[in-house]
Design goal:
Number of helices of chain A: 13
Distance between the termini of chain A: 29 Å
Oligomer: heterodimer
Helix content of chain A: 25-40%
Strand content of chain A: under 5%
Number of domains of chain B: 1
Shape of chain A: globular
Number of strands of chain A: 2
Order of helices and strands of chain B: HEEEEEEEEHEEEEEEEEHEE
Structural class of chain A: mainly alpha
CATH architecture of the largest domain in chain A: Orthogonal Bundle
Strand content of chain B: over 45%
Number of domains of chain A: 2
Largest sheet of chain B: 10 strands, mixed
Radius of gyration of chain B: 20 Å
Largest sheet of chain A: 2 strands, antiparallel
């Protein structure tokens, strides 16, 4: 009996070792120097986040990836960043209007996609967070998300052999602190760059659009691109896009941060990259699909008071135009990003 | 002109290399009016005549600036978190101060906007110290928590968590104190600085704990910041070692 359990133990131990070396040796999960080179895509502005102050290394990125996929960050080891931010959805959460946290508790906002974060001047739907590095403190310490304290986090990692080794490989000493956790996470999330959608390829002459898509592009440029502008498909401003004020959550958006009544019901203009994959839509996930989104924009009668007056130029959209806009929005899907092996779950649990 | 400039800066550089440097130790002593602060047990009275005890008192100071009578300045960009329940946090050391007589000492209560926007930091500015707001990112500059029978909050507690480096409430306050400090080569000068927590609730605004027992975001934060801006004073006659 005793010897049997020893065998089982040995077997388990061996499989862990084999599995770990599988991750390290498997070329699919291997991160090289080239993998962590920051390449600014053509037509993109200068990034706001400065990687010079957080030098990218393969080890730093791998540590960030490990942290991102590891539920150890939550109080009861049930939730990881990736529980809410799913790779197939450009790191948004498919089919969940509001985020789901620890013990199944429901948050008050729709999970945002994670892409092109180093070009964001502020984070969250209300722009309350001023630096990519400190953003994760929110989910980690929020009682209805991961419900953990930063100092506990540090203690847990200090007592975990894998992490002690991983931190050493990055920083070459034995210190584990919140700064290092947060900087490593930023190495991973900051490199999530989408720049190879069909629209990008069309602009570079590598791809052709159908007539429907072309019509959609033209409509988009005249009606939507003042807010969803440029290569990032957002002007990083806060606007009221006319959504009916919600009476349940009473989320005041930007006004929570600025304290100004004029910012009531304004939210960050979101990027539309990979929009096909990030349903449901809007800060509270009220629209299930793109058809519902376009139906909202299609008629000024839908706009609640206080809406941004630039919406007036959209006018009434015909059924044909709606279809063209949706066809265009689907050209923003970036398979290179969605299937980028660097961001895949290395399978450690 | 340019050569003169270069020559001049060169001489200042080399002369400052020759000049001696010393250390300044500032010992923070937290008070409530004229009584040394004692957490939990002591009962004090505020200007509204309400009894209260203190359970927690913490604040950030930084960007120390010492000035000589000829206008020459020593500047430090360091930050310190002073915690009433942690004796070691109350002694701060400024190093490499050029020797000489200093007539004023300026610093800020709070954390400047650059350090509020610099992302993850360690040491005094480690967000794990619990002096950080995550949802509207920035440091909490000062926490004063306690109990008062006058407070209508559950458990009769009061809590003032004051922070904010930008509109709608900029709570950074610059403290300017006259002093007489001699810094000597390779010597340590010590001074004691009084921080009077009673000031958090008075001048210019007298806080009535039955009406205002909790400030944890920008609402009313600037009022409290104006109050705490005159909370510091040097104890007389700095000693020398």
């Amino acid at each position: 009996m005793k010897s049997k359990s020893i065998y089982i133990l040995l077997y388990l131990l061996l499989s862990v070792i084999v599995f770990n070396s599988f991750i390290q040796d498997n070329p699919y999960f291997k991160i090289t120097k080239q993998d962590v080179e920051l390449k600014i895509p053509k037509g993109f502005p200068k990034p706001i986040y400065d990687f010079n102050k957080n030098k990218l290394t393969p080890e730093g990125f791998v540590l960030g990836r490990k942290l991102f996929y590891d539920p150890i960050l939550s109080k009861d080891s049930s939730i990881s960043c990736s529980s809410c931010h799913q790779r197939i959805a450009a790191f948004a959460h498919i089919d969940h209007p509001l985020s789901h946290g620890i013990n199944g508790m429901i948050g008050k906002r729709n999970v945002m996609s994670l892409q092109n974060l180093i070009w964001r001047d502020a984070f969250m739907w209300d722009g309350g967070v001023n630096n990519l590095e400190v953003q994760p403190i929110n989910p980690i310490t929020n009682p209805i998300e991961m419900d953990e304290t930063l100092s506990n986090e540090v203690e847990k990692l200090k007592h975990n052999k894998e992490y002690v080794e991983a931190f050493y490989s990055v920083f070459h000493d034995n210190t584990i602190n919140s700064e290092r956790i947060l900087k490593s996470l930023a190495q991973f999330t900051g490199l999530m760059i989408s720049s190879d959608s069909r629209l990008d390829r069309y602009k570079q002459g590598k791809e052709t659009f159908t007539v429907t898509e072309l019509n959609g592009l033209k409509l988009f440029q005249t009606k939507c691109a003042n807010c969803h502008s440029g290569a990032l498909l957002t002007d990083n401003s806060y606007r009221n896009n006319g959504l009916k004020a919600d009476t349940a959550l009473r989320d005041r958006g930007r006004a929570i941060i600025t304290g100004k009544d004029e910012d009531n019901n304004k939210f960050k203009v979101p990027t539309l990259r990979n929009i096909e994959m990030t349903y449901p839509y809007m800060h509270d996930g009220r629209f299930r699909n793109l058809q519902q989104v376009i139906n909202h924009y299609a008629d000024p009668k839908n706009f609640d008071k206080g809406y941004d007056l630039s919406l007036n130029k959209i006018g009434i959209l015909t059924e044909k135009e709606k279809g063209e806009l949706i066809a265009f929005l689907k050209t923003l899907t970036d398979k290179t990003f969605l299937y980028d092996r660097r961001f895949a779950d290395p399978g450690m649990k | 002109m340019a050569t003169l400039w270069v020559a001049m800066s060169f001489t200042t550089k080399s002369s400052s290399k020759l000049a001696g440097k010393g250390k300044l130790v500032i010992h923070f002593r937290n008070y409530v009016d004229d009584k040394e602060m004692k957490l939990d047990s002591n009962i004090y009275t505020n200007d509204a005549g309400q009894p209260f005890s203190v359970t927690n008192f913490k604040y950030y100071v930084g960007n120390f600036q010492l000035r000589k009578s000829d206008g020459k300045e020593f500047v430090s960009n360091e930050y310190f978190l002073i915690k009433e329940d942690d004796e070691s946090s109350k002694q701060i050391i400024l190093e490499n101060i050029p020797e000489g007589e200093y007539v004023s000492c300026n610093f800020i209560l709070g954390v400047d906007s650059i350090h509020n926007c610099s992302g993850a930091q360690s040491g005094a500015l480690d967000p794990a110290n619990g002096m950080f707001w995550a949802w509207n990112t920035g440091y909490i500059f000062m926490k004063l928590e306690g109990k008062s029978s006058a407070s209508n909050a559950p458990g009769h507690i009061f809590e003032f968590h004051i922070g904010g480096y930008k509109s709608p409430a900029n709570c950074i306050r610059t403290i300017s104190l006259n002093t007489h400090l001699s810094i000597l080569n390779e010597k340590t000068t010590s001074v004691e600085l009084k921080a009077d927590a009673a000031e958090v609730m008075k001048t210019p605004a007298t806080i009535d704990l039955s009406k205002l027992s909790s400030v944890t975001d920008f609402h009313n934060a600037a009022t409290i910041a104006d109050n705490y801006s005159d909370m510091f004073s040097f104890f007389p006659s700095p000693e020398k070692h």
